[in-house]
Specification:
Elements (H helix, E strand, L loop, with lengths): L13 E2 L1 E7 L2 E7 L2 E5 L2 E7 L3 H9 L1 E6 L5 H7 L15 E3 L5 E3 L4 E13 L2 E13 L12 H4 L3 E3 L4 E3 L9 H10 L1
This protein binds flavin mononucleotide (FMN).
């Protein structure tokens, strides 16, 4: 029997990511768990309006989304605990600039860069709709077909109700509906 625990925000775990953006001409990093997919080429990043990062995203119209792995979790947790309003977080991660001008974390195994195509302001949040421009994946995390192997990317997941970071479990099964469709399409 299920117990009704009320209006709980319970749609977890979610992948936790570090958003990178240039703010006042320096990289700034912020940890974000409220990310989502809104179409086949666009994602949503939800940032509380007072965050320092929002200023740079609005000004430059671009950001990077870096999946967190266990090796970088301490640093990721740190950039989620202090604000760029008070602390310069630019040197927390070694980074490379994308050709579109956004900082990308070197030790992240998967980084997406994208441009802002819309901002949906809701309650106290700027919900940035980001169209994907490029996707960088550690070659060691690509399988023989050149596809992303998420067991090797090993993204950290976040559980907000318990304030815990979780690891990914293994493969449970194959998604036959999509696999069969691809076969019949080819
Ligand atoms: C695990 C975790 C997840 C977080 N997820 C979000 C989020 O989805 N949206 C958000 O606005 N802030 C989120 N935060 C809070 C920001 O990372 C934090 O307030 C940060 O210091 C803001 O930095 P900034 O002011 O430099 O942008 C999260 C923090 C942690 C620790």
């Amino acid at each position: 029997m299920k117990k009704n625990i009320g209006k709980a925000l319970a749609l977890y775990p979610t992948p936790v990511v570090v958003i990178g953006a240039m703010v006042n001409e320096r990289p700034n990093w912020v940890l974000v768990a409220h990310v989502g997919i809104v179409s086949h080429d666009s994602v949503l990043v939800s940032l509380a309006k007072p965050h320092y990062t929002n200023e740079g995203i609005r000004e430059n119209g671009r950001l990077s989304i870096n999946l967190v792995n266990a090796n970088m979790l301490d640093k990721a947790d740190y950039v989620g605990s202090v604000s760029g309003h008070k602390v310069d977080k630019s040197d927390v991660f070694a980074y490379t600039m994308s050709k579109t001008g956004v900082p990308m974390i070197d030790e992240a195994r998967l980084t997406i860069t994208g441009k802002v195509v819309d901002i949906y302001s809701y309650q106290n949040f700027d919900n940035f709709i980001i169209q994907i421009e490029e996707t960088f994946v550690d070659e060691a995390a690509l399988n023989e077909e050149g596809k992303i192997d998420y067991t090797k990317v090993a993204p950290v997941l976040f559980d907000f109700p318990n304030y815990e970071y979780l690891s990914l479990g293994g493969v449970l099964g194959q998604c036959l509906s999509f696999k069969d469709k691809r076969k019949s399409d080819s």
